[in-house]
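HOLO CASE FILE
Compound: xanthosine-5'-monophosphate
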Amino acid sequence: MAFNAKKFVEDTIEEIRNTAGNKTALCATSGGVDSMVCAFLAYRAIGKNLTAVFIDDGLMRENEPKRVTSVLRSRGVRTVLISAANDFFRALKGKEDPEDMRKAFRHAFYKTLGKAVRKHRAKYLIQGTIAADVAETKGKIKSQHNVLEQIGISPSRYGLNVIEPLVKLYKPDVRKVGKALGLPKSIYQRMPFPGPGLATRVVGEVTPDRVRMLRKATTIVERELKNVKAFQTFAVLLSDRATGIRKGKRAFGNIIVIRSVQSKNALTASPTHIPYQILERIQKKITRRIPEVTKVLYDISPKPPSTIEYI
Ligand code: XMP
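Model generated. Tokens follow.
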């Protein structure tokens, strides 16, 4: 049966209202489609009893904290921004194994949220986990940052009661819910952005310097590819390096990968056919503006056998 987004919105608003009632709830929002749709759904259900929490973990794209909090606030959602970059970098320090990085991120994330829940005396945490997050985590492909209970971690360990209104939906239906909620296209048609942010695109240790480099490359790639239709488009920083030339001298530089994929539900994906001239322009801009980078590659791998992100 076709998914009825309007009915889903009505039923879910009622469910959230029945559960959270007149209690205070927090909603963790990263700025990605799922968490934004979830926040607005929760806002429709409990209004002023909802506080959206945006954690600035130091792993966001340029201007992301300001952009996300102002979108929420301009639509009436009470929003707090928590600056916690140091906590996240400390948690990620020395970690190079992808699953270790994911676990460290998840732990720092829920510790920060747990603190916020206590501070705001919230009874519930509402979060935008979707079916694909659970499927990949349970399938042991990668442990997505927002999956706890389904893998045997009790949210109460962090002092949380979790509500997950979107947990049965895949991305296309989440977008339909966003549309049914009357949100602008810029929110519900937005490219997905993973909860652990740029950390999913840093291979090797996540340090402030390496994230800064990747953030610059991300801005260039997103800008240059904004008119190319894709499910996701981003830059990746590899841990390998390659010999290059800077000012006539040998430079053992960093490698940036451009990644752009087509996908429906993120469970499978294929690389976007980007015109060669655009790739060349991106290469020039990246190597000119980020002197530490000497090589730019384009990733032509589908999922499977690749995944979309790099860790
Ligand atoms: P992969 O890399 O597994 O990604 O092919 C599938 C989709 O999920 C996003 N992704 C995440 N989203 N928390 C999230 O909220 C995570 O830990 C996470 N890891 C990957 C990814 O951007 C893609 O859309």
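CASE NOTES: The two ends are 35 Å apart (CA to CA). The longest strand covers residues 232-246.
CLOSED: yes
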